[in-house]
Amino acid sequence: MQEKKELNGILPLWKPAGMTSHDCVMKIRKWLKTKKVGHTGTLDPNVTGVLPICVGQATKVVQYLTDAGKSYIGEVTIGVSTTTEDADGEVVKQKKIAKPIKRDELLAVLNQLTGEIEQIPPMFSAVKVKGKRLYEYAREGISVERPKRRVTIYELTLLDDKEIFTGDTIRFSIKVNCSKGTYIRTLAVMIGEQLGYPAHMSNLVRIASAGIRQQDCFTFTEIEDKLDTDNIDDLLLPIEVALNELPKLEIHDTLASRVRNGAVLPIPEPFENYEGPIAIIYQGKVIAIYKQHPTKVGMMKPDRVLVFE
């Protein structure tokens, strides 16, 4: 009996609400009958959207996809804050909107929060403090000091076309392009703080991650249909697609053999001042990710080597 070929690639999943990212991974593992499955950046259970799932050799590049930028569309509610900073939490504070909020005022706040900003992760998050996740402290009713983190908001756009926002509470939609580690829930709270009101993120959808967009994704139903026809390969994106944002170095036959064996190489001239990861390409495929050598000046070493049978 012929051995089944190993699946390698990125499964662009449209994550449904009500499942954790880990739940999604476990479901895919069970379906594909392999442990070589990993996700590329946690989405809260109530959030839908793009969740790239790495399969086979692609699990070696999870880190680079997780590090890539992400895009969201969210609904911000001003006038109410919650324990979780989203619609799932219990109400903490309420404050009626005293006077209408003008569009220009709101745009000024969004502009102020664009660029590099400092965030404090929410208590209901997976950030670890003293070996324990913040949500575990929160469930026990324990409040701990949370480490600040610097993140980058590349773009923060108001999607509503109103000139004036009125009501006891107000809602509006935003589009966010941001760096890894950004808490969009916390961004909603920060918008509220700038306006002088409690706030939370009342709805959130991730529309892109690591260059993979909503239109590239498949639902669990669509994936299951492909499993029934044994054509799951049709849904997998090449690893190269997910690493599009990395600079690339194309190499020849002799060097490819050395790369596969983990050779330390001189840094090519175009990358002399570049400190990030470089995708090594051979015959159109990424075969390794190299980084600047920590101790040998002018040299680079493999961070990940991908071996295809």
UniProtKB/TrEMBL annotation:
Gene3D superfamilies: Pseudouridine synthase. Its EC number is 5.4.99.25. The active site is at D44 (nucleophile). It catalyses: uridine(55) in tRNA = pseudouridine(55) in tRNA. Belongs to the pseudouridine synthase TruB family. Type 1 subfamily. Responsible for synthesis of pseudouridine from uracil-55 in the psi GC loop of transfer RNAs. This is tRNA pseudouridine synthase B. It comes from Pallidibacillus thermolactis.
